[in-house]
Specification:
By secondary structure, the protein is α/β, with parallel strands linked by helices. The protein is built from eleven helices and 17 strands. It has helices at 41-47, 97-100, 149-152, 158-168, 184-195, 210-216, 227-232, 250-254, 277-281, 295-307, 322-330; strands at residues 2-7, 16-21, 29-38, 64-71, 83-86, 89-91, 112-113, 132-136, 141-142, 176-180, 199-204, 220-223, 237-242, 257-265, 286-289, 314-317, 337-341. The structure holds NADP nicotinamide-adenine-dinucleotide phosphate and zinc ion.
Length: 346
Amino acid sequence: MRVTAYAAPAAGQPLTKTTIERRDVGANDVLIDIQYAGICHSDIHTVNGDWGPQPFPVVPGHEIVGVVSEVGSDVTRHQVGDRVGVGCMVNSCGECVNCRNGDEQYCVDGMVGTYAVTDRDGTTTQGGYSTHVVVDADYVLSVPDGLDPAAAAPLLCAGITTYAPLRHWNAGPGKKVAVVGLGGLGHMAVKIAHALGAEVTVLSQSLKKQEDGLRLGADDYFATSDPDTFEQLAGRFDLIVNTVSASIDISAYLGLLAVDGTLVNVGAPADPLPVQAMSLISGRRSFAGSMIGGIALTQEMLDFCAEHGLGAEVEVIAADQVNEAYERVLASDVRYRFVIDTSTID
Ligand code: NAP
Ligand code: ZN
């Protein structure tokens, strides 16, 4: 079927309205009428070629919420009328050690990303800035009734990308967690770490968003533009989650970790992040990374957010405002996630 979408025609070009082909609904597929699609900084990195050449035209969007409108004959986990979500991953081999461990995002064969990737049937995936999408039912999440659908969309990437490392490194009562960067991922990291019971500190470029940070659940808030911050907080944190989309002085942040502390990078800047060995050695510290999260963990995260009344702080926009939203994200002028109302696409 032909559906309407917003696509980047070439690297760095503004997105424009177009039509794309979606495959027929296969035996294990669901057809989703998309309602909302979040704008992740990864969409912008991809479109701008920060991560290398892409198969343009690219329809971005991997924070998708909608309603099931058709299911294939073998589908049992979703029904027509269900509210569902799709995140960054729409397929994987399902058989390798990582898939079997519920870490499909680390599939040995390579997970199939929601857009700009060759799917297992040879076609190129296209994302959620669109009216409809067809996805294998095993990669479709149930969105609990208690969640507002627009506020739930960013959970499919920003939510799971922060929930996964917070859980993996045991953020909880008695743990001091710092979140670097208060954007889309950062604001969800603050909410989730607070809900998990950790003591949360925001490290932002300035104090401009301090009031918001404290309202979202942070206990403390510091400006990284102030050199005193790095002296005052030296050796303080058990876990630092770095969500910054640009290259920062990682060694300076490693100095804020306690002995045995971990700095986990979820930000994926185009440029390398150089590390001074001494900043790791001098406190048996770890510098780690984490990519989204597996399907079962994503469902757990959605259920956790529903239980704790957590959604993203969103600014809902019409599809023709997408290029302006990209500029604002690049200028760190987002509070805290733009979400496209996809009913404005047609
Ligand atoms: P975002 O909304 O733009 O947030 C990034 C925040 O980083 C900004 O709001 C800003 O916060 C801070 N920042 C930006 N430029 C900076 C600079 N030059 N120096 C210091 N701080 C700066 O982006 P996002 O959607 O949260 O995504 C963040 C990063 O995570 C991106 O690189 C994205 O590709 C990546 N990502 C990774 C995964 C994964 O699986 N690992 C998943 C999704 C996204 P303050 O103004 O508060 O400092
Ligand atoms: Zn994302």
